[in-house]
Amino acid sequence: MEAVTEIRDSVPAPVANATEEQREQIVAVDFKMVTFTLAGKDYAIDIMKVKEIAKAGHFTYVPNTVPFVLGVYNLRGDIIPIVDLRRFFNIDVPEREKDALENMLIVTVEEQLFGVVVDAIDKVIGIQKSSIQPPHPLFGDINIKYIYGVVESNNRLYVLLDIDRIFGARVPAHTETSSENDSSVVQEKPVAQEKLHAVSAAKMAEKRQETVVEEKNEPEPAPNIDYTFIKDGLQKLKNFNVSPVNETWVKHRFDDWVASRGSDNSQLANEKDAEDFISPFYSSNTATFWSKEYAQAVYKALPENAAKQISVWNPGCGKGYEAYSLACLLHKRYPEARIKIYAQDIDLLNISNAPLLSVPADVAGGWYSQFLVKSVSGTYSFKPEIKDMILFEYHDCMHANTMPMVDLIFTRDLLSFLSSTAQATLLEDFDEKLKGSGLVFVGENESLSYLPNWSEKMIGSVVVYTKQ
């Protein structure tokens, strides 16, 4: 490593013969920040999070990592990950020359060291903490959730980043029932963002009330039958959460269920009953390779996109059938684009085996054929260009997700098997991660139309959602 500096020791001491006004200003300084630039704009980080600054170039590549991770580096015996903050914020970066020296901030987050690559490191500035203003959505280059605040110093405006939220795990938001002085409760959102969410929540409640009025003509659950028992049974036996995402389907299914089994035999006695109840719920071609008909329907729903880079999020990817099917369609639909699919699941076995997925001979003879190669043993697998499009990751949606902005989100049936809290968290991530022109595909019996910030659209036989 070249040029390592302990940055906390680089701040000059106050000048002994300073004027009275200067001494007052020095005394008033109660916050210091390290400033740097990204794409010509000024940013800063709390100096207490910065261990040192450095220049380094030779990073050890780690396969199957997200694009903004340059690799790992040996920092005096500690192996630390190196993150390019420009790529993290989806800022265009020139092609990096091998072993070219990069400007790095070595930061500490929960006792873990990270190397953060920036364009240029400027200086240390002391300010009054009270001069830090709340973040504002107008700073559209990066997500507002990663901004601690903004501050002006010497006629320059600095965006102060919240390094804990960039690298840390998601924490529960402060609830109305929690004491304001309860130090065990960690605030998830800045105050300004909380107000925005409060407005959104009020609109959502109003929308739900309108939906209730509109659905009055829908069949009500059969009399004298405990519909709540059905909901509880689905949750306990199959982890299926009845919520506004799927309740319209569940109510219709309940009526059919009672009509077919009779009111005396309508409750869910065991796991088989619960599975029988939800068996019609699953979307077409779930947990299997896609039929030609379904693939064509999804292909028609894919929008025009002339971008050189197309990013796709596939949470709940399972064994990988969906991710590979998407990769084949996207390769055909956008042949000139560089496509990256972030396929995530909490089943570690599925994630580990997905890169090795083979294709049965009867499937290989269908629409997948042009995307497959045959080994000497006679088995079929996907071509390297298809495999390279997919990054299979173990990821829990309740934790912070550091993906770039995405063009498509494909998550069929996943929402219904999440708790209400996890649903809300994931839907918030959808809103944050999806580009303005992007599309969301959810399950065929799931809906986001009850939410005020999503618009439903049918393209052929496929329903998609866009941001309002």
Summarize the structure.
By secondary structure, the chain is α/β, with parallel strands linked by helices.
What would you say this structure looks like, in words?
The protein is built from 13 helices and 21 strands. It starts with a strand and ends with a strand. It is 27% helix and 28% strand. The longest helix is centred in the middle third of the chain and has 24 residues. By secondary structure, the chain is of the alpha/beta class. A hairpin with a 2-residue loop joins strand 10 and strand 11. About 12% of the residues have low confidence. Helix 5 crosses helix 7. The chain has a six-stranded mixed β-sheet with strand order 1-4-7-8-6-5. A five-stranded mixed β-sheet has the order 9-2-3-11-10, with no helix packed on it.
List the helices and strands and how they pair.
Blueprint: E1 2-5, H1 20-28, E2 31-38, E3 41-46, E4 50-56, E5 69-75, E6 78-84, H2 85-88, E7 102-109, E8 112-118, E9 120-127, E10 147-153, E11 156-161, H3 163-167, H4 191-214, H5 227-238, H6 247-261, H7 271-278, H8 292-301, E12 309-315, H9 321-333, E13 338-345, H10 348-353, E14 358-359, H11 361-364, E15 372-374, E16 380-382, H12 384-387, E17 390-394, E18 406-411, H13 420-433, E19 434-442, E20 454-459, E21 462-467
Parallel strand pairs: 3-11, 6-8, 12-13, 12-18, 13-17, 18-19
Antiparallel strand pairs: 1-4, 2-3, 2-9, 4-7, 5-6, 7-8, 10-11, 14-16, 15-16, 20-21
Helix pairs in contact: 5-7
Supply database-style keywords.
21 strands; alpha/beta; globular; six-stranded mixed β-sheet; five-stranded mixed β-sheet; 13 helices
